[in-house]
Amino acid sequence: MSALLELDRVNKDYRIGGFLDSSILHAVKNVSFTLSAEKPEIFTIVGESGSGKTTTARMILGNETPTSGTLRFMGQDIAGIRSRADRLKFMAKAQPIFQNPFEAFNPLTTLDYYLYSTARRFLGIKDRGGVEAATDKALNHVGLSLAEVRGRYSHELSGGQLQRIAVARALIPGPRLIVADEPVSMVDASLRMSIVNLFRELRDTLGVSIIYITHDLSTAYYISDRVIIMHRGDVVEAGDAQSVLGNPQHEYSRALSGAVLPPDPEEARQIIERRMAGAV
Ligand SMILES: Nc1ncnc2c1ncn2[C@@H]1O[C@H](COP(=O)(O)OP(=O)(O)OP(=O)(O)O)[C@@H](O)[C@H]1O
Fold first, then answer.
1. Does ligand 1 lie within 6 Å of residue 52's CB atom?
2. Backbone phi, then psi, for 251, in 5-degree steps?
């Protein structure tokens, strides 16, 4: 099996505190996992606030270097990507989606501008027709079209629609991996389901792997193929989503999922669907 992404005993420490009372915070401890290049999947990192999820995501995106250990993307050491050209190539294949779609887009700039500039930057398309065609294609993958988005500003759209546009922007360069950090936590409960379902569609139709980062167990249970649970920087449990979240072994994951899901998978599924539809 060749690897799309490989984390090998990755650690990240931060020095915190002042000059005289500084100490080391182990934000991420010895994390290892591999995503296959052949089989796209939704790989979810679950954990409470401060568990190290975002730090892990930032290292995967090359925005943070590990204190020790290695992260490889398509065989390349992410920390070793130096030149602008290599960085651009890497970014085209590993795209982020952030928590707050309202912050991702400047309210004074039309949304199509972001999509056009992404097409120009990553695909090198120069002519207007080509840029519009690439933009429309990406928007179609998220259930929108350029006609609906052209000339619109972020305040004219809902959080759910904006997050779809953020996903479309991420799709333009043709990524193999999307790292989505809490992508639905700012989206209305009634629209969350449609966004997480979109991730499934992207996995199945475009073969994109998704690293889905969340503290929300119901969406994690609903869409994930595999899950790791992080607690204070450690991976305390890992495996396929149904077994980890449906039948957690570690004390922390039991506490985490017991609060939300009953042990019976069918009952759990019904609760999740009600929650995702915003009924609970
Ligand atoms: N640049 C930094 N300097 C110092 N400490 C940091 C830095 N970035 C993160 N941390 C600390 O590392 C730990 C893990 O943070 P991280 O943001 O990865 O957690 P998280 O699980 O994503 O939580 P959240 O959902 O709140 O973002 C926290 O204790 C955080 O305060």
1. yes
2. -55, -45
